[in-house]
Amino acid sequence: GFEMKFYLSTKPDEALGNPALWKKAEKALAMALKENNLAFDMKEKDGAFYGPKIDVEIKDALGRSWQLATIQLDLVMVPARFDLSYIDEKGKKQKPVVIHRALLGSFERFIGILIEHFEGAFPLWLSPTQAVVLPISEKFSDYGEKILRALREAGIRAKLSDANETLGKRIREAELLKTPYVLVVGEKEMSANSVNVRHYRRGQEGEMSIENLMEKMMLEIKKKAI
To answer: How far is 123 from 104, CA to CA, in rounded Å?
Structure first.
């Protein structure tokens, strides 16, 4: 769901390496962007001293720009420091150009941006807890456990909340944690082998068979729906 912008950062004034190789590298990165139909702007002289790069910036929920991914062509540093070489088709030793990339930039900063972007309400596929099962009373705890096992066997990250609290309080706690699916079960649901579904963003969705619910959730996870 991020708005992304791509930049090609070119040779700075204080650069190492062969100028002709720099030109070739910049051309190769521009071609890669064009062949992937990615519109980009130039950042003149903003490359690293050892090679040009592609920078990816995103805008968060507050409209602020952050640089995340970087795809760096390394003409000098890693090939020289590690004394890398390969033998070409003519049997001659050649120096490679190394591509290294940071897909998320700083991982910790990316997680912070992600939490803020979704305001803590992660889409289903990303949410640490995807569903919470709430039996109306202890009488329906065994049925709640049955639902929990079915969800977990399907690979859905689920929890059971059968604490000695009122149903209303447990629903509020699940909403405060921004859990995508809250599944309430009682006499009616146990008789019909169903659950009463409440979605954090979409609100009350009503009674649904456990099979239909799992099918719906699995499809939502597979599509990585936002």
So the answer is: 19
The predicted pLDDT at position 162 comes to 84
The pLDDT tens digits for 69-99 are 999 988 878 888 899 999 999 999 998 888 9
Residue 70 near residue 105 (C-beta atoms within 8 A): yes
- Distances 122 to 1, 24, 126, 140 between C-alpha atoms, Å: 11, 42, 6, 29
What is the chain's mean pLDDT, rounded? 92
CA distance 2 to 5: 10
Strands 86-87 and 93-94, sheet pairing = antiparallel
Q: What is the pTM of this model?
A: 0.73
